[in-house]
Structures are given as structure tokens and as C-alpha cells.
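Minutes, project huddle
Topic: does the predicted pose make sense with zinc ion bound?
PN asked that the exact inputs be recorded in the minutes so nobody has to dig through chat later. Recorded below.
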Amino acid sequence: MEEGFVRARFSNYYSRAYPSPPPSASSREWGFGGWEKKIESRHSRFNSGEELVAYLRRNAPLYVSYSSAYYEFPDARPMERKNWLGADLIFDIDADQLNPPCIEKHGKGWVCDTCLGMAKNETIKLVEEFLLGEFGFNRDNLHLNFSGNRGYHIHVIDDEVKPLTSPQRREITDYITGKGLEGKYFFFERGGRWEGPKKSDSGWGGRLARGFIEMVKGKKLERILKPSTSKRFYKNESEVIAGVERGNWDVVGLGSSHKSYEDTWERLGQELGVKLGDNIDQNVTFDTSKLIRMPDSLHGETGLLAKRTSSLEKFDPLKDSVVFGKSPIKLKIEKAPEIRIWDETFGPYENFEGELPEAVAVYLICKRRAKLV
Amino acid sequence: MKVGYIFVSPQNHFMDLSFNARYPFSKSAREYAENAGLELDFGLVEKGKRRAEDAVLRKRIPSIADSSFDLESEIASYAIARMIVSQIGMGQAIESYAIAEAKRASSYLKSEGDESLKALAKDFGVDSENAIPVLKYLSYSPRESPYKLVNMKLADGKVSVSKGQLIRVLEEAIRLRISGSLPLKIERVPPEIKKAAEDIRSQMPKPEVKIVVSGDRPPCVQHLLEKLARGENLPHAARWTLTIYLLKAGMKEGEIVKLFSTSPDYSESITRYQVGYILKKGYSMPSCRLIDSHGLCVYKCGIRSPLSYRGTKTGR
Ligand code: SF4
Ligand SMILES: [Zn+2]
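Predicted holo structure (C-alpha cells), as shared on screen:
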């Protein structure tokens, strides 16, 4: 019954909306999901964007995904026969990967303003600091959208990026996440002194220096150093900071013995890097055979739109991505944490039975927290 | 017999000619060779054969003496060596050849002035001597931890490099350009070329050690062993990891050295030295995380170290 309800809403939405397909929609592989699985079928192709939209109207799939890759034969199988022509570069930020403090309150898989805010900040860091600042991508080639559930997706659509191989993409994610960072490449002996990165250095060097200073100031060094060592630095705070700002790590005493601190830099790298979703291996970025949610399609786990946005700062996912209305729906809820939709907070619920606005009902039903009565 | 080259290009400045002779894979050398032409005579075939032989069998192409006045035949020998290597018909020969050519070029770059370096960098689309556009960098940088992007200075889409780093990156770019352009498809292969290729093939070492393909090695190690068996070149981090693993697994130093003999740039003395060094220093096994950061983890077994890998079967 619930599935039918959700499908009817989705179908209604697609019949009035015209989600604009990604560039080169006909060179991509498409996949669709239903009530049980996010991807039930894949290897589909469409000859045009119109054909795709017609399909969405007819079938109202609960999940719509496409390949970041472009193929000559998107519907051929097995994968090798599709003939890979290139791929967009995709990043996925997911609130669950950010260890938000609120997870204790609402559990994994649920969201609130705190964790969605963290995901947004992480996305801004990735875009501004890394993709625009360091990688120098053109802002026009970055396409951002809410994932429809717990985070954000960034698509880099750029002819120069398309041919990147999987190991090359991996180098990019390693850079962004700080993986494989080794302190020894940032410290040098010069004139009997250990010089390290300065605050103003570009790339990871400067980030390490700035991050280290922040940690001294915020008394957070224990995350990367032994408590006793950390204490020593807190005591000489001003001296330590002045030294690191100039790249003089002898003052810190870390430089000269940097060999014993190899883990420290790796850990600092991990602290300061971007936490990408699907943390185990950042699959969507380097495995170019993966499918990614179509921007401006509905997400079957929330009923929210995976909405495109060009101004992330002002974007409010629990308002701007809501497409369903306020007509009352009768529901039964055993237990559900609270959720904000529009400017209103709903729940928490326990053994609730009553009417809720359509958008909230769709959300709770998709999350499998509510049943129709 | 004629294969379409005659070296008649008097406008060419000697400087250019010497550049082209040192860097015969450069665009300017190719243009030069296209405008010129060459008669395939016995002397040239011999010279080309020596070049291919030096590269494939001895892993090193001697550099031309600076006073060499026969720069044209130097360029021609490159063209001929490529035909011969293509005819050998083994991936390993192509790999070895490309590595030796790249090393030869990089040794010139190290000893030469900045002008040639600049010119060659430009040939690969790198306009500045101290910064490489990041996407170019990713396609050419060697897969070694000092060159890992995260350990480099990156700003505004450019990776800052020292002169030494630029040369190393170019060496890799040269290797890729050459190996990517081979084998050549030649319609009618002159018999002299066929014969030269056959001659070299017969001298190539057969892989001596049968590589044990057993099921209870960690997938990453297994993968590296298979690559070795196919005669592929392993990056530094891969050799390092593999050597430590095999030592820990109880393999003898000499056996490991032999194992590497199938690799295209194999040098027994260097390998012996490296394996001995690792043994002497008693390095500990790199963690799965570290291995993964080098892009060498192929499976995600869910363990911390390849040494604790216990096969796919559980129990026992
Ligand atoms: S998890 Fe460890 S043992 Fe398994 S493949 Fe990866 S690196 Fe090797
Ligand atoms: Zn939360």
C-alpha cells in the first residue's frame, strides 16, 4: 500500500515537472530503482532527454541514476562492450561520514540541521578550497546538487577531465582526503635548521601549518599527538605559533625528529582533508562505472528532490527540495525522530496516529517509519 | 630500398638537428624526419638494430658523443629501432625499449642547459619549467610516493616542480609516448628489419622462475606477482611491498632477485642491492592502509596487514 502511495505521488510530480537531463544523456547508462532496491535495473539507454522524461512520467521510478561515464554503446553488456569514452568527475559528501554529534540523538540514516549543515560546510570546503582554489577548475564546470537525502553531489563536467583514468582519479581523491600524505616531503634541513611549511604556503604545506596552529589554539592536538607532547606545546603556545607561521619548525621541536612523527602528519592530513562519502574507497569518484543520482530527480528514501543549486550558502535542503504539498494524510507511526520540513518541526513520534502534511508523510513513509491508515 | 626518408633539409640549424638527435621522439624531430627521407642501407639497419638491442637486452642506450657529426643517422636509427622493436612482437620488448629511450633522454636533460629542457617540456604541453598543469601532471607523474599529488605543491591548477622533478616527470611522459606509439603497423616489413627483430628475440631471456600462483597469497601480492609474470614494469612502491612480503613469507634473497628478472628494466645488481637493503634494514610490512594509499590494494580484505591474510577459506 505504501509503495503504491509513494509511486502515485512520484508519478504526479514527474507529470507536472520537467527535470532537465544531464548533458549527453544519450551517451550514458541509466539505472532505476524501486521500493526494495536503489538500483533494480541498469544498462538502459535513451536516445534523447525527451525520451528519458517520457520514461519517468510513465514509470515513476523511485530512484533515477545515470553513469558519470559516457559510452559509445551505453546499453551493451558486459561493461567492456559499452566502449568507455570518458567520464565526469564526481564527488559525494554524506553527513553520515562526518561523524556528526547528532548521530547519537537520531541515529544513522536520519538527518537534522546540524548534520546537514556539516555536510554543506564540507561541500563548500571541497569546492572553494580544493576544486576551485587548488585544482583550478572553472566554476562554470562545477555542478552542485543536494543528494536528496543526507548530503551533496558535485559533478565536474569538463572536457579535460573526461579522459582521466581511474588511478588518476584516485590521485585526486587522495589529495582531497589527505590520504598518502607524508611529512617527510614537507620538511627540509637548511643551514642546520629544520624548515617546514609556512602558513602562507600553497597546497597541503600551508594547510598543515594552518591546521597545526588551529589545533594548538583550540587545544585539539591530542587528536594527532601524544597528550604529554600536546601539553608541552600548549605551554609554549605563542612561541610555537610564531615559529610555525614562519616555517621554523625547530621551535616546535617536531621538525628535527620528524621521523618519529610520520603518523602525526598522516593523521593531521586526515583531519584536514575532506571526508568524502562512501569512505571506504570513494567509489563514485574513481570507479567510473558507477551510477549517480540524476540531479533534479526524486529520491526514493525521502521523497525530496536531488535539487540542483548554484548558491549553496543560501540553500536549505529541507525547504528548497520539498516538492510535495500540505494536504493531510492519515498515518500510523511507531517511532520516529523529529524532522524539520519547511519551517516546521515534526515529531519525535512514538505510537502516533493522526494526520500529517503530504510532504512529511511521504518523507516518513519513504524512510519506513510510517504506515498509511 | 626506400622507406620514404631522405635527409635533405639544409635549412635546419645545427642546434635543431642536435636537439632532434637527442630527442628523436619530439614533435620537431618527427617533423624533421617527415620532411627528410631515408635510404635504408645496411649501415643504418645495423645502427638501428644496435639501438634496439642495447635497449631491450642491455636496458641502456649509450648516448651519442657530443662531437658526433652523423646526427642524421642517429635520428634514423631511432626510426629503425622502433620498427625492429615492433617486429619483436612482445610487450616486454616494447616496455624495455621505451624505458631505455626515456632514460637516455633524461640523462641528456640532466646534463644540458635549460633551453633544451624548456623546449622539450613545451613539446609535451608544459609551458613553464617550474609548474605543470595538474591534469597533465596526473597523466605523466611517476606512481611513487614523492610524486604523489598530495605531497606536491598545488595551487591554481598547477603543480610546482623543481628542475629534477620536471625531468623525472618528462622521463615518464617520454616513456608513455613511446610505448603508446608502439607497435608500429607497417604494411610491408623489409626483410632486414624482420631478421634483426628475430635476432634480438632469440636473445631475450626466458623468464626463469615459474611464479607460483597459489590461492593463499593476499590479493595485492598475487596481483603484483601476476604482473611480474606478464613482464610488466612494477613501480617502486610495488617492488618494495612485494619484496618485504616475500621476505617475511620466508623466501630467500636470491629467489626474490630472480623473480624480478622478468621486469623490463631489470638489473641484477641493482635488484640485488635493493633486496639486500630491505633485508638488512628489516623493514616492517606496510599496512594495508599504506598499500592502499599507493593504489596497490586490489581487494579490501578487511585486515590491517597483508601478513594476516588467511585466504578466502575461513576456519583452520
Ligand atoms: S586489504 Fe590488504 S591484503 Fe587485502 S588486497 Fe588490500 S592491501 Fe592486500
Ligand atoms: Zn543530525
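Observations noted during the meeting:
- The pocket of iron/sulfur cluster (ligand 1) is lined by residues B 218-220, 288, 291-292, 297-301, 303, 306, 309 (CB under 6 Å).
- Chain B touches chain A through 24 residues (CB under 8 Å).
No decisions taken; revisit at the next huddle.
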